[in-house]
Amino acid sequence: MKTFKELVYERPDFEQEKDALKRYAEDIKNASSYEELRNVFLDREEASRHFDTMFNVAYIRNSIDTRDEFYDAEMTNFYKRQGSLTLLEQEAEAALLKSPYLEDLKREFGELLVQEIEIGQKLASPEVVDDMALDSALCQEYNRVISACSTEFDGKACNFSGLLKHMQSVNRKERQEAFRAWADMYEGVSGELDRIYDQMVEVRSRIAGKLGFDSFISFVYARMGRFDYTPEDVKNFRRQVKEYIVPLCQRLFEEQAERLGVEELQWYDEQLTDPDGNAVPAGGREEMLGWGREMYQELAPEAGEFFDFMLEHELFDLETRLGKQPGGYCAFLKEEKAPFIFSNFNGTSADVDVLTHEAGHAFEAYTSSRIYPLSAMVWSSSEINEIHSMSMEFFTYPWMEKFFGDKAERYRMRHLAQALEAVPYMVCVDELQHRVFEEGLNAEGRRRVWRELEQTYMPWRSYDGNVFLENGGFWMQKLHIFVNPFYYVDYALAQMGAFEFYKKMTKNKEQAWADYYKLCKSGGSRGYFETLAYAGLSNPFRDGTLKEIADFLETKLFS
């Protein structure tokens, strides 16, 4: 494989792709034996990888610089044609479901694959092609708007990521000014974001209705493969978060206010956990990649092999820049069996979190793609995928001295506390989305409900009198609400599994890693509950699971 920068992008021939899908459907119908069907199925799998890889190359390069007109146009081109290609793929899969050799396929590749194909029959139709293209275009517009935001701070142009380091300063005035600059940027584009989201809610509801779903909620649960649980189960999970997790977080923030010597903790204080300053990495990109290599080589042979592959092929884009999409993600280039890590380094401990969190995703994809012949089996469900990433953050704890020196323990304690403190926010985001589609909330209603939910799940939250945020504007800063609807609760569910792996680590590190590696090798071969049981993890919806986790964390955080 070449390095990522050397990979040649070429726009797929969309008409050729349509013809290939039509032939695929016919070949399925004409297969006269399972062996023949299997060959047709695997040949199509191989052929589709190039198309998907070109999509991801364009997506990554568009994320790296949203101002690049060429890749912006390429993504627009993909989104316009996505719906018609989905329909042709759906027709081929319908033929597969009618094949007399379906049971043979199920025996070889698993029931979950067939279940996902069956659900896929309900998720698209000619009536929603234009709506699907519009939804994708709105996501692209959202990314453009957010990526274009910048402000001058301390004599330098900063985007949202660039302000985060200032928002962790030991100087409270600097934190406060950075916070105001951050909030002002969001308020400045709030009208555009409200307009975009109003259109998203409208088009997503329309898609669900045309496809026969009673709401977008039931549609998106089906699209995300949530076969094992319902919105009512998620509601019960949120209840347990409020009962067992919120009180622990309240105690943590009360202790933090006392340490910082402030009478009332403001939002811009939440990010500073120590009056002497948060632990920050001692080096830049090159040093941290070098330390990362040492860390993964020492962690396990399979982890070292993976990270060497990432370095050799330069599968990272890490530094924040103007025009770059905010946040971080792990993409996957199917043709190369290569993960790609995208992030925005900003000089805080979050830079190290990228080399653990996103690397957890990448390690799982690298591992499972070398086991399973089907791309659909590389990734698991999103609730499991986030266990891969969040658990890796804990497995790398013993190597934090490489990055933070004598402040490593300060980092570990802050990381553990913030992992817990993030959970109420995650379910807050989830409940907002449920209520948006249940109640048809407009812009004013979203702000009102968000503020109510903050006071329920984050009663410590105060915005120092900032009118925009005190009136509920903070919801806008969560990318997932716009581009990955209903995904965010998966982080909270997965965090429970990661906490359990951390608990296992404290007892037997070798066995904990063996169980984790077993989970990664499982890929997407099993359903959600089955995968949890396979890896020896608890069901987070079960009454009592969150209490057991909270009791364990209490001993670690308050001893």
Automatic annotation (TrEMBL):
The note describing how and how many cofactors are bound reads:
Binds 1 zinc ion.
Stored SUPFAM superfamilies: Metalloproteases ('zincins'), catalytic domain
Q: Which prosthetic group or cofactor does it need? A: Zn(2+)
Q: Where is the Peptidase M3A/M3B catalytic domain?
A: 167-270, 312-549
User: Which CDD domains has this protein been placed in?
Assistant: M3B_PepF (cd09606)
Q: So which domain of life are we looking at?
A: Bacteria
Task: Read off the Pfam families from this record.
Answer: Peptidase_M3
Which keywords fit this entry according to its UniProt record?
Hydrolase, Metal-binding, Metalloprotease, Protease, Zinc
Query: Which protein family is named in the record?
Result: Belongs to the peptidase M3 family.
Under which name does UniProt file this protein?
M3 family oligoendopeptidase
Native source species: Bariatricus massiliensis
